[in-house]
Amino acid sequence: MNTRKLWMLLTAAAVLFFFVLPIARLVLLSVQGENGLSLGVYTELLEQKRFWDALWNTAIMVLGSTLLSLLLGTASAWLMAYTDIRWKKAMHLLILLCFILPSYVLTLSWSSFMGVQGPVAQILNVLDPGARPWSVYSMGGIIFVMGIHHFPLVYLFTVNVLKKISRDLEWAAGTGGAGRLKVLFKITLPMALPGITAGGLLVFLASLDNFGIPAFLGTPVNISVLSTLIYEEIIGFGPSAFARGASLSVVLGLIAIVGTLLQWLSVRKSKQGETYLPDEQPRYFLGRHRLWIMPLAWGSLLLMSVVPLLSMILLSLRRSYGGSLSLSNLTLDNYRYILLENASTWRSIQNSFMLSIAALMICLLIGTAIAYFRVRRPSKMNGLAELAISVPYTLPGIVFALSMILTWMEPLPGWNPGIYGTTTLLLIAYVCRFLILQIRSSVTAFSQIDPAVEEAASVSGAGTRRRWQSVLLPLILPGLLGGGLLVFLTALTELTVSALLYSSGSQTIGVTIFGFEQAGSTLYSTALSSLIVFLIFVGAGLLGLTQKMLRRRRGGRLS
Amino acid sequence: MSIEIKGVEKSFGDFRALKSIDLSIRDGEFVAILGPSGCGKTTLLRLLAGFERPTGGEVVIDGKVVASSSNSLPPEKRHIGMVFQNFALWPHMNVTEHVRFPIRNHKQTPPEVRKQEKARIDEVLQLVGLEKLAQRMPHELSGGQKQRVAIARAIAARPALLLMDEPLSSLDAMLRMDMRREIQSVHRTTGTAVVYVTHDQGEALAMADRIVVMKDGEIQQSGTPQDIYLRPQNEFVAQFVSKSNLIPGSWQEDIFVPQGENIAIGWAGLEVAESFRQSGHYPVRPDQLELGQPGPGMLRGVIANVQFQGKEFHYDVRTDRGQWEVISSSSFKLGEEVSIRLPQAERKTNVRYVSQV
C-alpha cells in the first residue's frame, strides 16, 4: 500500500512539473510587473497596431480556412458515406494524404505548383504571354492551403456520423413526402451536425496552432498572424521580448482553450446518438451523374495534393530555379548537396531521427503504462493526469514552445540544467507534446481487450511479466505501432516547437527547410521536403505491412 | 483440498457486495452458487480466484490463509482453473497453446504432468472432444468449441479448484444442455472441486452436489438440490428456485388453512419452514397444484391466461387472494372457473366451514 502511494505521489509530481508548471510560468510572466502583479504588458499590447493587425489576420485566416475545410470535408464525407462512387479505399487514402503531409511540405508543393516557374505559369504562358498565375503568397493562398490541409479532419468526423444515421430515418422522411434534397437538408445534415461541428472546431484549433503555412506564405509579404507574431517577438529579442511573447501566447492560448471546450462539448453531443453500427452500403446511386461526379471528385483530389507534390519533386530535380524544363536540366545535385555537402543539413537529419526515435521510445513506454492504468483502473486522479498531459498538445505549438523556454531556463529556483538550445530540451518538449498521441492510441488498443483475457492468463499461473509478454503485448502491438508511428512522424517533421527551441547544432529537418526557404534556396528546401515525403511513405508502408502480418494469424479481428 | 470462507465481507465504496459469508467446500465437491444478478455471487468467485481482496474475514485453503483484508495471494499463485463467461480465449494462440499455457506457467503443476506435457495436452483435448481441432485458432471455432477450449485450459494443470463463472450463458439453449453433460463428465473424470456460479436454477439443480442460494450479498440457503427445491427455507428461495406460489392463510400447528370464503380444507405442512409459518404463507410449486371442477369448501379461481407447452398447460389462475401459476395436463378454457387443490397434503377441516354456515 505504501509503495503504491509513493508511486502515485511521484507520478503526480512529475505530471505537475512537466505539464502544468510550464503553463503556470507562462501566465505568471505575462502578468509580472516591476513591482508585483500588473497587467501592464497587456495594456501595452492593446495599444499596438501590430497586435490588432495580427489578431484580425488570424481571425480571417482561421475562419476562412475552417469554412473551406467544412465545405470540402462534408462534401467528400457525403460522397464517401452515401454514394456508390468507385475506388473508395484509394480515395480515402488520397483524402488523408492532404493531412498526413506536414503543412510546410504541402505549402512548398503549392508554391512550386503556382510559382513563376511552375506548370501553371507555363500553361498560362502558352495561352496568353504575360499572364501570371495567382500568387499563393497572400491571405487567399494561406486560407486555401490551410483549408485543404485540414479538411480531412472534418471528413473523418463527418463520414462516421453519416454512416451511423439510420437509413430508416431517411426512408421515413421519404415516405412522409420529402424529396431527396429535402431529406438531405431536413434529416441528414441536421443529424450529422454534431459531427460536422466537432470536426469544424478541430480545424479551428489546428488553424490557430499552425505556424508553417503563415510563416512560409505570409511572412515574405508581411502578413502576420498571432503564431508568427509570437515567433518574431521571441526571435527579435527585444528588451521585453519574452513578456510580450508571453502575453500574446496567453491570448492565443485562451482562444484555443475556448475552442477545445466547445469541441469537447460537441463530441459529447455527437456520441449520444452512437447506438447504430456504421452502415457501409451506398444509399444513393450516381447513375448517369457518375459521368461528371467521378472526374470532378478524383480530379480535385489529385489536384489538391498529388499534382502539386509532383511539381515540387520535379522542382527539386532542377539544375537551377530559372532554367527551362528539359531532360538536360534534371539533376540530383540538390540532393547531393543537402545529403553530402552541407554538414548542417546532414546534422539536422541526424538530429530529427535521433529525436523522433527517442521520443517514440519514451512515449511508447510511458504512454502505454499510463494508458493501462487509465483503462484498467480508471480513477479521478489518473483522469486529471491525462487532462494535464493533453494540455501541451491542445495549446498552439508556439505557445507551448515559449512556455518550455521559460521553464527550462531555470526549472526550480537556483537550478539551471543548462539545456536551453540543446537537443535534450527538444526531446523533453517533443515527449511532453506528443505523449498524449501515444496514450490515446494505447488506450484504444487496451480497451479492445476484454479484461477476462488477462485474468485468464493470471489464473493460468502467469505473473505480471509473463502476462505482458505472452498475452497483452501480442494483442496490443498493432495498435501501439500505429500510435508509435504517429509520434515518430510528427516528431520527425515537427517545425513549430523546434523553430523556437533550436540553436546552432540542434537544428531539425523542419527548421532547416524553413531556413532554406527564408534564404531563398527553394531547390534545397524542395529537395529536403521530397525526402521527407519519401520517408513518410516508407514509414506508412512498413507499418501497414507489419500490422497485416501481426493480424493475419488472428483472422484480422480482435475477439 | 478444503476451502473455508470465514466471515468474508466485501464493499465497493458504500455498496456492500458481500455481508459476512461463511462457506466451506469439501474436496471434489461440486458447489453451485445461485442467485439473481447483483447478488454477490460473482464477487465471491472473484475473491476465491484472487482478483478481489476481501474487506473483512478470510479465505483459507488447506489450512493456509490465502486472503484477508490485509493481504491476498495473487491468482497466479493459487493453482486454480477458471472458465469465464465470454470464454476469454487468447486470439493469437491456437487450441494446443491454450492448453499448454497453464501447464508451463503454474508453479504447482504436478511434476508428472509437466514431464508428460504432450501426453497431458492430448488427454485433456480428448476429454473435451477437441483432439481434431488442436491446431485451430479461436476465430476458427464455434461457440461451443470455444467453451470446450476454455474448460480444457482450466483443467490442464490439474488445479486444486475449478471456478466457473456462468460458463453457459453465452451459448444458445440447445448447446447449453450438451455442455451441462460435458461439465458433469469433466467433474467426474478429474474429481476436482468445482465452484460454479449461475443465475439459472436449472443448471444448478442438474449438476451440483450442493447449491448455495444468494441474495443481496447474503447466503439464503445452502443444501442439496433436493433440499433447496423441495424444502425452501424462505420466500426468496421458494420463488427463485422452484417458482413457488406463496399462498396466504393461517397456520394451526402443522395444518395450514388457505385464506378465502368458505374454505373447508387444510393442508398438512410438517416440512414447511418456520419463516413461512411466521409470515402466514404456504409455498406451493406450480406442478403440485391440481385444477378441477369447483365444489363447496374448496379454493376457487378463474383461468386468466393459458400457454400450451406441448406435454402440459401453464395456467395463470386468478383468485380473490392473488394470482397463482399452475402446471396441469388437463385442458381448461380462458375464463373458466376452477377449483385449486393440493391433493398430496389435503386434510378435511370441517370446523370452519360448519361454523360459518
From TrEMBL, chain A:
Mode of membrane association: Multi-pass membrane protein
SUPFAM superfamilies per the UniProt record, alphabetical: MetI-like
Domain of life: Bacteria
Pfam families: BPD_transp_1
InterPro entries with a match to the protein in the record: MetI-like, MetI-like_sf
Domain ABC transmembrane type-1: 55-263, 349-544
Transmembrane segments: 54-81, 93-116, 136-162, 183-208, 246-265, 291-317, 353-375, 387-406, 418-436, 475-502, 522-545
Major site of localization recorded for this protein: membrane
Subcellular localization(s) per the UniProt record: Cell inner membrane; Cell membrane
Keywords assigned by UniProt, alphabetized: Cell inner membrane, Cell membrane, Membrane, Transmembrane, Transmembrane helix, Transport
Family: Belongs to the binding-protein-dependent transport system permease family.
Name by which UniProt lists this protein: ABC transporter permease
Species of provenance: Saccharibacillus kuerlensis
Lineage of source species: Bacteria, Bacillati, Bacillota, Bacilli, Bacillales
From TrEMBL, chain B:
Keywords attached to this entry: ATP-binding, Nucleotide-binding, Transport
Gene Ontology terms, MF aspect: ATP binding
InterPro entries: AAA+_ATPase (IPR003593), ABC_SmlMolc_Importer (IPR050093), ABC_transporter-like_ATP-bd (IPR003439), ABC_transporter-like_CS (IPR017871), Mo/tungstate-bd_C_term_dom (IPR008995), P-loop_NTPase (IPR027417), Transp-assoc_OB_typ2 (IPR013611)
SMART domains: AAA
Lineage top rank: taxon: Bacteria
SUPFAM superfamilies reported in the protein's UniProt record: MOP-like, P-loop containing nucleoside triphosphate hydrolases
Segments forming domain ABC transporter: 3-241
PANTHER family in UniProt: SPERMIDINE/PUTRESCINE IMPORT ATP-BINDING PROTEIN POTA, SPERMIDINE_PUTRESCINE IMPORT ATP-BINDING PROTEIN POTA
Name of the protein in its database record: Iron ABC transporter ATP-binding protein
Lineage: Bacteria, Bacillati, Bacillota, Bacilli, Bacillales
